[in-house]
Amino acid sequence: MTQQEKGTVAISLVAYSVALATRRGIAAEPLLARAGIAPALLGQPRARVSAQQYGALWNAIARALDDEFFGQDGHPMRSGSFIAMSQAALTARDGLHALTRAVNFMHCVLDDLHAEIDANPQRVRLRFVHRNNAPVPAMFTYATYFMLVYGLTCWLIGRRIPLLHASFRCDTPPVEHEYPSMFCDDMRFNQSESYVDFDPEFAALPVVQNARTLKTFLRDAPASFVVKYRNPNAFAQRVRTVLRRLPPAAWPDAAGMAARLFVAEATLRRKLLGEGHAYQSIKDALRRDLAFEALADPSRTIADVAMAAGFAEPSAFYRAFRKWSGRSPAEYRDDVLRAHPARAKSSETT
Length: 350
What we know:
Elements: H1 3-6, E1 8-10, H2 11-22, H3 28-35, E2 48-50, H4 51-65, H5 81-90, H6 95-109, E3 113-120, E4 123-130, H7 139-157, E5 163-167, E6 187-188, E7 195-198, H8 211-220, H9 235-244, H10 254-260, H11 265-274, H12 279-295, H13 302-308, H14 314-325, H15 329-339, H16 341-349
Parallel strand pairs: 5-6
Antiparallel strand pairs: 1-2, 3-4, 4-7, 5-7
Helix pairs in contact: 2-4, 3-4, 5-6, 5-7, 6-7, 9-12, 10-11, 12-13, 13-14
């Protein structure tokens, strides 16, 4: 997958992750360097990094702390735990069985945060339990747990599991708008319980992965699911494939996309909604990610980048990019190149 297929992650989540490491005496700069993230980006509230970069940062922090849960529990999740959990869930018979195995594994690893599964025909609920009179976790802690078990389960059955609702006991996080990309639009905070409701159809779907595909999955994790797991055969992925083959200026409207996929427009919208998407949101996210990716190439002018992202006027691109990142395209590029000096040097010699 290309970076734009994987999506991007808000710098606020990067900063929170780094803060968890620095509180335990780990220097931030080497971690950011391993992920190719410019330290200056931490001071830009609307900056974003690729899921690949965030995945590299995640792995660097986990290794530095020897804790794949970033020190957010009384008991560390030692390095190699996610591999062991994946192997344990690999032989599950179906989606619900796989989720149960993942949750049971986490129960054996963590002391303070646990989850229980409550299934009925209307939904499968992953309910969080706070053990040992532990204080209510931060939203990032819930998200870390959820991404591990959800990302693994989605991969095992080969499709993204639609989420119906999510409620959390914690306060509304400072970057509330970022969490729906990990969960769902229907999210509530300051609730009496913490839980996530899954669409129940996944429960009976068979596990389709094997030991051979597990190697590739583990090599790419967690970048492969840190934004949201994407099934390459999903309908939304078919839409992205069509869009990537066209210049953004030529992207069709919903009716045109439906015609290209040989379905009715209503079918297009229904299928995307079932996977947690809207057609316009897919276009907006891809346009944004194309811009971030193109800016990492110092040989391209800002006007080229604007055109690559589908903006007829550079001024419109400047306005959109400031809205996305809080910086001008040139300022953002300078920060990226400081994190990748080899790219800047290569550009100077061409």
